[in-house]
Amino acid sequence: MDVSAQNLRDRLRGMLIAAAATPMTESGEVDPGVVGRYLAGLVSGGAGALAVLAHTGRGPYLDDATRAEVIGRAVALGVPVIAGVGGGGDAAAQARAAAELGADGVLVFPADGDRVALHEEVWRAARLPMIAFDLYTLPCPPATMRALLGHPGVAGLKTALLSDAMGCQRAIALTKEAGRLAITGEDRMFGPSLLWGAEAALVGIAAASVEVTAAVMDAFAGPSLRAFEEASARLDRLASLTFTEPMEGYVQRMLWLAAAEGRIPPSHAHDPYGPPLPGEAALFAQGTLTGR
Asked: N or C, where is the chain less crowded by C-beta within 10 Å?
């Protein structure tokens, strides 16, 4: 395992990494100032690190200039920054750009084809520690996962299997056996995934109401089972409203929630790349869905 991957693994252990959205207008325009203030609010609210341009941040849809602005604003906050790469774009080139901008690592989107070769290409291009990604839309076969976890540049693996409890448990176990960081991305199995052995969290549920997610992490590290139970219940109530069918609509819901909380202006609470959600906007605009 490369020393850079070891260092990132150890730095992120026990940390909440907010999978940040990218605030934008209805036409997809991104204001760097809005992004910077939004990301700063996530950090002050309890996120110890930021994952930008991941699925929640709509990274695969954004042009290189916008990606650079988002990464730059995140890096300026002085916390660890993980940049999403791939998902349709040139993952190696995106990783190289992220390295030049000061990102600490990359989250490699799953893809059809040879995933191990993809990670090797990204590693050779940037030499940035990598987080592998087991996503419910393209689950990683166990043999491939073992190979990925044996790559010297892989610091950890994020599991986001949505409702596959056994798959999540298997991924966590394989990751820890390989000496890598087991990262939960399980917005709908958050508390259980910590009990199954996840050692950090990288979740879209922390794109707004980040304090609700941070409270679960804090309670899990503390001595009170009742505090963990209560914090988990609050987060589950929030997740049941935001991570629901159509599942791809969660990005829009989190943006609406961020606007209701005053984190971003309503003019930048749009996800042009998600499904239509008729009738839901008014509910989130009430600002009563924080789970607190």
From this structure: C
